[in-house]
């Protein structure tokens, strides 16, 4: 059986992995941490437990159950998703390499909100971007900035470097990453605002300094579901991934479940959608030619 990649190891991702694995698929779960579930101190509205338990314990039990069935786990971060050659299958981009899969379930939770920096919302589509691979070409010979301090931000900067005249990494006061790519200019000051007339023209720092740029790429934290969706052409409803009744997106072979699809942000809903997505992905894999 061809491989299914599940991104996210919360209740939606683990449920998808369990159902697909029990159906005979080779399943790899990619992710670090268990998202919002790990922050839940007590869960007492979920079926099957006569006493409350912590979110962390529920997550642990789910992961151990998946491992018992033979699900493989890779503790790494997804920074991009693209088609393989001839658009037959997918390549998941990690900070240090890639993973191949013939189908993907995106279950990494709701997208993180960008920092509340004045100008980000106002200039969306006019110099503010959330996908360097999509828009880097438009900044040939121009200066661009990437907001972020993690692996995701570095991956976005790497996509810009071959095109832009100069690429600036803005950590917004966070610790600077190690091993910066050659040619990347580091700024650790906090960002006060992004300004311009019709389009982005400059970044203003809290200390009073400014930086002239034509493009500003938001890559704060890790790559959320919205950012990944934009990179590969998945349709959105607001900030959530648009899916049909079988949890399929508009991109054949990519499914989504849990908080990434919006609606009721509860464990019960995530488990249901994960099960549906896992079964739909299994059906898709069975229908692919060997």
The best one-word shape is: globular
Largest sheet: 5 strands, parallel
**What's the SSE pattern?**
EHEHEEEEEEHEHEEEEEEHEEEH
Q: Structural class, please?
A: alpha/beta
**What is the distance, rounded to the nearest whole angstrom, between the alpha carbons of the first and last residues?**
9 Å
The number of helical runs is 6
The proportion of residues forming helix, as a percent range, comes to: 10-25%
**Rg measurement, Å:** 20 Å
Strand content: 25-35%
Kindly report the oligomeric state of this protein. Answer: single chain
pLDDT < 50 runs, ≥5 residues:
none
Strand order of the largest sheet: 3-2-1-7-18
Give the integer mean of the pLDDT values: 90
Number of E strands: 18
């Amino acid at each position: 059986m061809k491989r299914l990649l599940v991104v996210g190891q919360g209740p939606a991702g683990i449920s998808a992995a369990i159902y697909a694995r029990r159906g005979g698929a080779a399943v790899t779960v990619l992710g670090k941490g268990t998202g919002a579930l790990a922050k839940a101190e007590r869960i007492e509205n979920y079926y099957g437990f006569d006493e409350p338990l912590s979110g962390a314990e529920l997550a642990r039990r789910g992961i151990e159950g998946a491992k018992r069935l033979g699900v493989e786990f890779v503790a790494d971060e997804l920074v991009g998703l693209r088609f393989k050659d001839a658009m037959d299958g997918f390549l998941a981009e990690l900070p240090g390499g890639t993973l191949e899969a013939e189908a993907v379930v995106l279950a990494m939770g709701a997208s993180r909100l960008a920092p509340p920096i004045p100008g980000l919302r106002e200039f969306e589509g006019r110099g503010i971007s959330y996908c360097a691979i999509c828009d880097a070409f438009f900044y040939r010979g121009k200066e661009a900035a990437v907001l972020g301090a993690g692996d995701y931000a570095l991956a976005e900067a790497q996509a810009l470097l071959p095109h832009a005249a100069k690429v600036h990494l803005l950590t917004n006061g966070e610790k600077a990453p190690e091993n910066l790519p050659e040619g990347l200019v580091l700024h650790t000051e906090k960002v006060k605002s992004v300004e311009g007339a019709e389009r982005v023209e400059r970044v203003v720092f809290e200390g009073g300094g400014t930086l002239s740029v034509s493009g500003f790429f938001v890559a704060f934290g890790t790559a959320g579901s919205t950012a990944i969706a934009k990179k590969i052409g998945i349709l959105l409803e607001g900030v959530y991934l648009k899916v049909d009744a079988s949890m399929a997106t508009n991109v054949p072979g990519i499914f989504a479940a849990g908080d990434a699809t919006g609606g009721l942000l509860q464990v019960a809903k995530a488990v249901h959608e994960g099960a549906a997505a896992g079964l739909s992905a299994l059906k898709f894999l069975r229908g692919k030619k060997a």
